[in-house]
Task: inverse folding
């Protein structure tokens, strides 16, 4: 079967999560909207054919296509050799799965959709930041940091003592937030999360993927 290609923008947190999994497993991959013999138009006919909801990332592996970030990561972990990003024990795997789901939904919404993107892509009149919306979102941001801090505890990784798909999903989110001046105070309040992020950035995968953020702050 031919190589792996991740369709999506490099700055996307979910695209970066898939790329982190590829790096951790040593999978060679391409990334972007220009893949062999074809350029995919965002929200075009081909995009909707590959992902019925017009989102990214989408994985191309030979003749196979898969969408939804966590599903893609699980597929890569099962299909390719190398280090395992999911525990073999059923209960431990369920713990990772539940945090993958939480990060992809509640945490992404609180920290990215309702908070960071207001700085990056303001929706106010004349493209201004809606500071009232940010004030409304801050309690949920603070609550989310507290939950993550409690889950991390004294562990090296978010689900224990080994790197998992949950770390790949969480790292790009925290990486963007830490670069946002308005959110730096939260990392001061939760130094364990700051140390966690530093560890993830220092990994070879982090050094390769967490680069030149194209989303401004």
Result:
């Amino acid at each position: 079967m031919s190589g792996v290609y991740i369709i999506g923008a490099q700055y996307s947190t979910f695209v970066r999560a898939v790329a982190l999994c590829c790096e951790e497993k040593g999978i060679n991959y391409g990334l972007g909207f220009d893949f062999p013999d074809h350029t995919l138009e965002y929200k075009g006919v081909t995009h909707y054919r590959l992902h019925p909801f017009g989102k990214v990332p989408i994985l191309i592996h030979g003749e196979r296509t898969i969408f939804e970030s966590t599903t893609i990561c699980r597929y890569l972990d099962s299909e390719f050799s190398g280090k395992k990003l999911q525990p073999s024990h059923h209960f431990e795997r369920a713990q990772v799965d539940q945090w993958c789901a939480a990060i992809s939904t509640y945490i992404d919404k609180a920290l990215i959709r309702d908070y960071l993107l207001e700085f990056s892509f303001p929706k106010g009149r004349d493209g201004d930041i809606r500071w009232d919306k940010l004030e409304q979102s801050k309690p949920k941001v603070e609550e989310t940091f507290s939950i993550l801090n409690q889950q991390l505890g004294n562990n090296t990784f978010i689900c224990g003592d080994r790197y998992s798909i949950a770390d790949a999903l969480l790292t790009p989110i925290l990486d963007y937030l830490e670069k946002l001046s308005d959110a730096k105070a939260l990392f001061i309040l939760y130094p364990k999360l700051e140390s966690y992020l530093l560890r993830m950035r220092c990994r070879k995968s982090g050094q390769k993927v967490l680069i030149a953020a194209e989303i401004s702050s």
